[in-house]
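Run Response regulator transcription factor through structure prediction, thanks.
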Amino acid sequence: MTTVLIADDQPLQRFGFRMLLESQDDMTVAGEAANGVEATRMTAELHPDVVLMDVRMPGMDGIEATRRIVAGGGRSRVLILTTFDLDEYAYSGLRAGASGFLVKDAQPEELLSGIRAVATGDAVVAPSLTRRLLDAYVHHLPAATAPDAAPDPRLTALTDRETEILRVIGQGWTNTEIAERLHLAESTVKTHVGRILSKTGSRDRVQAVILAYDTKLVG
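Sure, done. The structure for Response regulator transcription factor is below.
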């Protein structure tokens, strides 16, 4: 059973999310928060699998709440709801440690699939949106480092094959695409991805994508 904390300042929005989630046999609502302060406190108390986080809330917004939840080191993962006209929030959400993004007017099945994916630490949520955000995100990174700069320490433990796979993860390839294009078994790709996450300290695939951009493997 996947437990979800709903964080949104609109009561009707929370009600709609609750009705949808409770219609699923594999989901239950752990609680509701009306702002970032409540979301942070309730996450620490309830340890939900997923926090469905609105961005714009009074007081502490969803980005700061996400940052504090991730910094707390718990198992809860954050799925941020955003809109195409608020890309600047999405950049901040990436940095804060969100595990996925969905547009707020997503179809119900998209939201449910997104929650399930984030709960299992699976592939990037809403690939079309995330790729769009990351394509823009790269332009917000600092200038490239000098050619003689020391390798990023987060990459030094990776094998050549793992570095190659991290690079294509950053380009938005799925495990199936990696397996087909690099002529590997999909189970082998999953093993490599798991090792990459472990060695680089990435919480999930979204954070691995950010790492690929940060370290200029992609860009």
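The chain has a mean pLDDT of 84.
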